[in-house]
Amino acid sequence: MLSRQRARNLVVVVVLAGVGLASGEIRKEYHFSVGRKVNVSIINQYGPISVKPGVKGQVSVTAILHSDKVEVDQSQGRKRVDITSHLLSGADEESGAVEYIVTAPPDASVNLHSRNGTLHAEGFHGDVTLEGAEAIVDVRDVSDAHVHVRTLNGPITMTNIREGHVEVTSLSGDVVMSSVNGPFVQVNSNSGKIRYDGEFGGGGEYFLTSHTGDIEATAPSYASIEVVARSEQGKVENDFQLQPRHTSFPIKTGSAFAGTVGKAASSVKLFSISGKIHLKKR
Predict the structure, then answer these.
(1) What predicted TM-score, i.e. pTM, was given to this entire model?
(2) Three-class SS of residue 216?
(3) pLDDT, tens digit, for every residue of 191-206?
């Protein structure tokens, strides 16, 4: 009979080749017994990663390898599970691709990295970190967590993030945020567009900045915000009736505005060098 410690660290690997898979693809499954607030890290050179909440105390990983030019390295510590795609000699973007489908406890923290595959995480209340060069990023239904996203030119979508500490950095990818609220939300992009549709709630601080991309922020008529918006060379529009406030720079119609709506519970700052800024009333 296995000891408790050995049973806790048991990893089951199942390899299926040629069963319901494309020619040359290999399917592997890994199962890890884990404790509370485990950290799950998946590093994939090429290919998508999807992580969703599963059962308590269990991390399950399905890896679909596109060829035998790539291997899956796995390790487990007391509070972590690490999975890495290991490219072998001669592997390229196609033959080295792996698709990961993962379930983890809802309180897990997840760290996902892929150069070009879709990164998808949903349903967690542990911290979420997603990184990729050209990766498409989709984060949804996350609460009470830090969410960090870093990409070069992949598009980013964030939906239903509640009480989040959110930091997004992108070189040229567009960022779309729907119902994202929390004590701190910051988006920085060089040339990508930023679109926010939410309440600016939680009495938080919201910073949306794009050097050359447009910024569109939509909020309800009952929003409670103190807002400052400024574009050095672009056009600035506002749909709200603002109570004026003092700023460190001159207010010029069409290029900057500042003021408050309601009780000004949250701070909203919108900045661009040459992009258009529009604060829209839903």
Answers:
(1) 0.87
(2) strand
(3) 999 999 999 988 899 9
